[in-house]
Amino acid sequence: MVGGRVRGAWRRKVERAGVGVEIRLLGRLEPAEAAAVEEAGQRLGRFLESPVELAWL
Known about the structure:
It contains one helix and three strands; from the N terminus they run E-E-H-E. It is of the alpha+beta class and 57 residues long.
């Protein structure tokens, strides 16, 4: 959600080498919004204590 609106969806996949996160957007993100998604992925990796790879679909 960005600004109270759904902007896409994501799905987490546990893999042998870490965690994969597939991101499907409903539209384009502003650069700051995309950076926030990247940071959220890094925070998820720290929480899970596992490397996270984001895949933008």
